[in-house]
Amino acid sequence: MLSRPGVGPLVRDYRAGLGMPRRAKVTAILMIELFAGVSAFVRFDPGTMRYVILAVGAFGIAWILWRVPTQSRPELTRWPMASRWFERAAVAEAVTWVALLVAMSVKYLGSGNETGVRFMGLVHGMIALVYAAATLHAANVLRWRPTTTLLALLASAPPIATVWFEGRIARRGLLDAVAEGTAVRRATGGATPTLPGADRAAGPPGPSGRERVRKAEARGS
Questions:
Q1: How many CA atoms lie within 13 A of 90 on its CB side?
Q2: Which are the contacts of 120, defined by CB distance < 8 A and separation ≥ 6?
Q3: Could you count the other beta carbons within 10 Å of the beta carbon of residue 58?
Q4: Maximum Cα–Cα distance for the chain, whole Å?
Q5: What is the pLDDT of residues 11-38, one digit of tens each?
Q6: If you average pLDDT over every residue of the chain, what do you get?
């Protein structure tokens, strides 16, 4: 396992006491929430075993949150506030999506209780609106292309897709602060634009070095 490219570095860092990346912690919490909730409410009837599973899941989540260090992310220092709000909204949308899936499993596969679906449906709906607002704000501040904005909005439909999409655009640098002129260079395909009339405003080109030498020799003779 330590030699695997994806999992190996995470395990080595954890064993060395460096903790886990924030994205890995979010993914682990989502998986515990999903499997513990489905196992407790769908597989078992109300009783001791259900509470044992929920207690073990809660202990695992608490351990990850408070006992496992979070590795620092250098890119956050260059992220504007719009990027940070987008990241938080993406995580919250994914968490409430998983909670809604658990509630739906209870309704359709378990006891048939609809209370969880009604409550989590309302919560998830509000978080989805917050995610949409954070997406549009980030798209405006960070100068995203229309296709990127559309994909970010569509990522709220599948479960946990917002966390995946946020990680993807973060690796591409789309959550970094936009430097001056970046949006214009993106629009022109990477070329540095020239303002209309800039050549005329600059005036005719001056004489070259050889021409200046010839003029100076002619004046001296």
A1: 29
A2: 96, 99, 100, 102, 103
A3: 13
A4: 111
A5: 776 676 677 777 788 888 888 888 887 7
A6: 76
Per-residue pLDDT of 87-138, as tens digits, reads 889 988 988 898 888 888 877 876 677 777 888 889 899 999 999 999 999 9
Non-local CB neighbours of 116 within 8 Å, separated by 6+ positions: 102, 103, 106, 107
What span, in angstroms and rounded, lies between the C-alpha atoms of 86 and 167? 11
Sequence letter at residue 45? D
Instruction: Quote the tokens at residue 50.
Output: 């259900």
Q: What is the mean pLDDT of residues 141-147?
A: 92
With tokens 């207690």, the residue in question is: 55
Helix axes 161-171, 81-109, angle to 10 degrees: 150
Write down the residue that tokens 């489905």 correspond to: 38
Helix (H, G, I), strand (E, B) or coil at 146: helix
